[in-house]
């Protein structure tokens, strides 16, 4: 009866977001979808989608939940009124929140790649 869904936005739904916005968004999703699930950038994208989708208030018997997390996220991003820069700013805030959490909770094992710099606003302007 119900779609197989998660309580919060799942890692496996990230690829479904790839072509929903502009090139900057696509580059971010492609970058994140190859990272491990416990990587800070992947967690930040999942956190951002949890906030945008309203996953915390989602009920398992709601229409959104029955459609599934990926379909809900696609609809949310299509309806998002801000620019891609605004959306990437929301991601940056989530990334800062994940960094802060990782510092305060090192036992959680959140990874960050030293070779990969997070996508920052100034870097987005040159892409």
Compact overview of the structure:
It is built from 6 helices and no strands. The protein is mainly alpha-helical and 127 residues long. The longest helix is centred in the last third of the chain and has 21 residues, at 84-104.
Radius of gyration equals 15 Å
| Low confidence ranges | 121-127
| Largest sheet descriptor | none
Mean pLDDT value = 85
Count all strands and give the number. 0
Could you tell me how far the N terminus lies from the C terminus, measured between alpha carbons in angstroms?
Answer: 45 Å
Count, helices: 6
Structural class comes to mainly alpha
Bin the helical content: 40-55%
Number of domains: 1
Shape: globular
Give the H and E element order: HHHHHH
Q: What proportion strand?
A: under 5%
Provide an overview of this structure:
The structure is a single chain. The chain has 127 residues and is an all-alpha fold. It has one domain. The protein is built from 6 helices and no strands. Helix 2 crosses helix 5. It is globular.
Describe how the helices and strands are arranged.
Blueprint: H1 23-32, H2 40-53, H3 63-67, H4 69-79, H5 84-104, H6 121-126
Helix pairs in contact: 2-5
Name some characteristics of this structure.
mainly alpha; single chain; 53% helix; 127 residues; globular
């Amino acid at each position: 009866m119900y779609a197989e869904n998660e309580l919060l936005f799942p890692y496996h739904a990230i690829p479904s977001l790839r072509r929903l916005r502009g090139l900057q968004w696509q580059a971010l999703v492609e970058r994140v979808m190859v990272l491990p699930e416990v990587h800070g950038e992947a967690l930040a994208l999942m956190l951002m989608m949890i906030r945008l989708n309203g996953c915390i208030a989602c009920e398992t018997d709601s229409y959104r939940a029955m459609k599934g997390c990926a379909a809900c996220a696609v609809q949310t991003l299509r309806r998002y009124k801000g620019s891609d820069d605004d959306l990437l700013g929301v991601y940056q805030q989530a990334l800062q929140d994940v960094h802060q959490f990782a510092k305060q909770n090192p036992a959680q094992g959140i990874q960050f790649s030293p070779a990969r710099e997070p996508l920052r606003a100034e870097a987005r302007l040159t892409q």
